[in-house]
């Protein structure tokens, strides 16, 4: 179980969508979609990463900006899913 998934998520986004350059990475409250870091294909790649890394499957209704639009939102979503799975 991950106590703090943010560094793992942040590293994945920087390496896969920003080509290793963290300078355009918005803060944890910044929108990955509005800042054009993620597009629809990127969202699918991010979902696959989340499922593979954190060990759960995302339902279609969970693939929404409320869960995936910032590092903070992704981390909170991951924690909520992994916490429920371990309870």
UniProtKB/TrEMBL annotation:
Taxonomic superkingdom: Bacteria
InterPro entries the UniProt entry points to: ACP-like_sf, PP-bd_ACP
Residues covered by the Carrier domain: 4-82
Signal peptide limits: none
Official protein name in the record: Acyl carrier protein
Species of origin: Rhizobium aethiopicum
